[in-house]
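Thread: Modeling a multi-component assembly for a lab meeting

Hi all, long-time lurker, first post. My supervisor asked me to bring a structural picture of a complex we are working on to next week's group meeting, and I have zero experience with this. I have the sequence lines for every component (1249 residues in total). Could someone generate the structure of the whole assembly? Inputs are pasted exactly as I received them:
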Amino acid sequence: MKPAPFHLHLPSTLDEALAVLASSSNARAIAGGQSLMPMLNLRLAGVDDLVDLNGIAQLTGIELDGEDIVFGAMTRQREIERSALVAQKLPLLSEAVSYIGHCQTRSRGTIGGSLCHLDPSAELPTVAMAMDGELTISRQGSQRQVPMRDFGLGLLSTCLQPEELLTAVRLKPWPAHSGHGFVEYGRRHGDFAVVSAAALVELAPDGTVHRSSLTLGGVAHVPCRVSAAEQMLQGRRPEPEAIKKACAQAAEIPALTDPAYPQWYRQRLAARLLERAVLRALDRVTPALTKTGP
Amino acid sequence: MGHADHAHIGQRVLRAEDERLLKGEGRYVADFEPAGTLHAAFVRSPYAHALIKRIDASAALAMPGVKAVIDAAQMAGYLDNLRMPLGWPSKDLPPDITPYVLTPSEVCFVGEPIVMVLGDSRYIAEDGAAAVEVDYEPLPVVADACAAVLPSAPKVRLEVPGNVLKEFSVGHGDCEAVLRDAPHVFREKFVQHRGGAHPMEGRGLLAHYEPQHATLMLWASTQMPHELQFTVAKALGLQDSMVRVTAPDVGGGFGAKFVIYPEEIAVAAAAYHCRQPVKWVEDRMEHFLAAIQERDQFWEVEIACAADGKVLGIRGSMLHDQGAYTPQGINCAYNAATAVTGPYSVPAFQLDVKVVQTNKPYVIPVRGAGYPQGTFVMERLLDRAARELGIDRALIRERNLVRKEQMPYTKPLKARSGRHLVLDSGDYLGAQQAVLQAVDYSGFRQRQQAALAQGRYIGLGFAHGVKGTGRGPFESGSVRVSANGRITVATGAMAMGQGLNTAMAQIAAQALAVPVQDVHVISGDTAHISMGIGGFASRQTVTAGSSVHLAALEVAAKIRRAGAHMLQVPESELQLAGGAVVLTADPSRRVNYADIARILRGIPGYDLPPGVGAGLEAVVHWEPTDMAYVHGFHACEVEVDPVTGGVTLLRYVAMHDSGTLINPMICEGQVHGGIVHGIGNALFEYMRYDEQAQPQSVTLADYLMTTATEVPRLEVMFTQSPAPSNPLGVKGIGEAGTIPVTSAIASAIDDALSDFKVRVTQIPVDPVWLAGQVADAERQALGQANT
Amino acid sequence: MTKLDAASRHDLTLHVNGRPQAVSVEPRTTLADCLRQELGLTGTHLGCEHGVCGACTVLVDGVAARSCLMLAAQAQRHQIETVESLAEGGQLNDLQQAFRELHGLQCGFCTPGILMTLTELLKYSPEGSEQEVRVALSGHICRCTGYENIVKAALATLAQRGASHGPR
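Re: Modeling a multi-component assembly
Sure thing. I ran the full set together rather than chain by chain. Output:
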């Protein structure tokens, strides 16, 4: 399976890359290549001008900007996996990265590439949604900020215009006393998740839920926040029955359906895996709480 | 120095092949590229059933680097027949069932090759193939075997009268009476799917006509070099001697390379007629589309039992999906049918089999060859009976197993040849007891309860599996000592990763009392041995091993006879040691093999020693008279997640008996690989098609194969019950590990989810189905709790 | 900025197994094909060309990556190591020797890729557990061995290297 011919552009600056995207009617950027190269090899995607982003140094890096962590879009998943800063400030991301594919794909795969491909069950879009990430999108001469909630338009489809590139992802850490949990079910280790669940929980001093972020991957066309569940938990004591009832909301979300994994199955997993993720997050917040109960 | 120093059989001899392979110096078909090689890519049908109306190659031919575009009409001019011959002709099958080398007018499965494009590189050949325009008129599609037998079903192929290829029955005894009178009868339906073979190296062939040798050279990734030689020679109207097949390093077969393919004939024909090397290396997509598979069987069976679990009879029917063509007979269906009763004594048995065609790729055996399916039926029926009768699963098996003392046990069931199947040797019950002890079966209920208290669902399952190995009609083995003292073994058997060459070297080296590394083995080269059958059905250690052993003994006898003449002593006073024949009483009196070979090579003017014959070599075509039955008993512990239906294997223990083990290290590896292939069939491997027979799982991301994280440690033990039917007492092993796996895992899942009354009757086990069973049971329980 | 035209071959320099190598490739030529065809390094194999089987695995700056998913032109910036770099002076290195002694290969087709992944593991996870070994191997498919002896060979090499470094 060999790709069809294309012109290959090897820019060393962002401006050079954006110039090619602006001038070609059938151009695509290639980041880590772990999703695009199979499509090119299988001749499922045709491109006239391939723009290789791997030589653009300014697009890589993990930086602390105030309280936020900013990732250059070309930052490798492997680097995120090994980053002490990420482990400390964004433990949900740190936990989720190890589920992405295999080490041999994380060595090339990038955060930007994963977000732009927007596979419905991919871990990085799910975490970016969970953390209300903010994306920097650039075109020749300008850039815009797009919240993660507005980035995905549908299945494998983002708001990126053909002449635009995602250049940075900003994540705001949750307080150090909050808990995180990432749970997914895939058929084998490293496989795409059928359904994944990400939970962030912050408790108030009185032990009730101050706020939570409950996100599902692999259920809707794009990773989705389960706001109904978040609202149900708000201000309540996070007891097992309350968590179960809140997470059951996840089963009401209209889910993707295909011959392998029908809607009811994804909905079942959505509710139950979200519950597991919340319990894991609570385990990390107040270890004492989960040891009580029936 | 005595014979005992060269007791190589049974030793964990390291493989000679490995150094080269580990350094990346393996030579697979894709690694060869003589100057001027043209690369082939095929235009393949995108429809499961259609008529070809028009082919326009003009755009492809106009592309720089595209050298030829060959369609069926042009290919027909190269061949004696555009249609492939039936591998192993049989009058039991109707005519016109084999595929075409290139399909002229009616395509019958997605992926069927229509046009061959030759280009300067594979990249360019694929560009050319993409540019060939083909107009099709779609025809109605038969997407599965159940649809194929409906009265309203369209024809899978317009050429054939109906979709049923063959109906046959196997059995013995009076099933009707038994089923009528039995105290207990249980009915089950099973759906068994096995996917493709998927060796990591796909199919491939490099063909090159060498005019100075007037030989068409074929470097082929194949399991049957002589069959390929014969088929190509016949197709091109050449003498066999004008076609040479050399198998390079072969990256696995598993059945995928155990048939001659249209693409291979097309490539050979193109190379012969273009007088340029032509190379075809399939990619993974082509393997999904057009390599053989095993696919679907639908079973409806009933088992009759006495109250104590003694099996009185089994009766049923089976529907087998053969695919659109039949290149090689219907072994897979036949094997599955005759494998059902396995290691058990079943007084009455009847199975009616319908082999049907569908608009899908053709089916021939994948590792296991129908035996896993037959075994699954028996083992599941026993588990069902055990559950219904309240009898322990191990006990019901014990009550029905053929015992060691009964061997050789002539089964009432006859093979196609008309001969009874005979279980030759083995201790099936002993293996069961040993493995169940190793997994602490008696303590399992307690462990299960403890896990349940923690909300974990674990289960233990087990199964027997037997297979007749060492299938004939013969295999070839030659042993030759050359005048420079080098020992060469040649065989028609094929190496595809199983260490065949090392095993054959051990056998020859022992018979000739030399170190193993002094023996060089050539397998799969038609220039070095004139006849052979090849590698499949777990036959080569038995057949090639026996031939090589007997040939080596013949050479050893020549050595003794010549040595007796040259040393002027009786043969009884001689022994072989260290590459020479020596006088036992005075080892300083000796003649090297090399010197004997030189004498027997002949010197003009001098007679050869009397009664020895020219040349220090022998060739044997050993013919087996009986099958050698291998046996395995497997037990596995699983955990099932009731939410996701996900299955985790916690522990896997197996005891195998493959008779005398030539190289235990290699044998363990064969069982490991077989087990993991079986795990794939049990949990992962599924070729999904839609209702238009369009393949949906055509990448390794969709078609799941077992990976290292999904497998626990494999605890494999061996006993050795020699086979009485061959000189070494060996039995096959390549497929043995695969046969009981689906049964053992299904049994374990049932055990884990017994609270939810789960009964696995479909393979591979689908987590969605398991979750659904649990969900149904949860709903029922909730409904009852609410009443 | 460099633009490589689709219809031409382009002369590039790659750094492979410690040496600069001149190659002539199309823009679409994958790193795997370039290694195999331009440089005759056929030890790197193609099993799927869609990034799942791992047979094409090489080291890119010391880290395992799938060469079927990289373009040769992209590899210009990196140090590439293939299976041919492992043997020392023509002798099998300790990992390769462990594979031989413990029967960690059968047909050998998936083996080079696995050796490269394990080479990275040995360097970055010298105290690797069996689970870590299996996780690293999960990016590879082997149809022959069932992984049992591959895991054993990896663990034996880890233990041997750990022992030779002595106690902390």
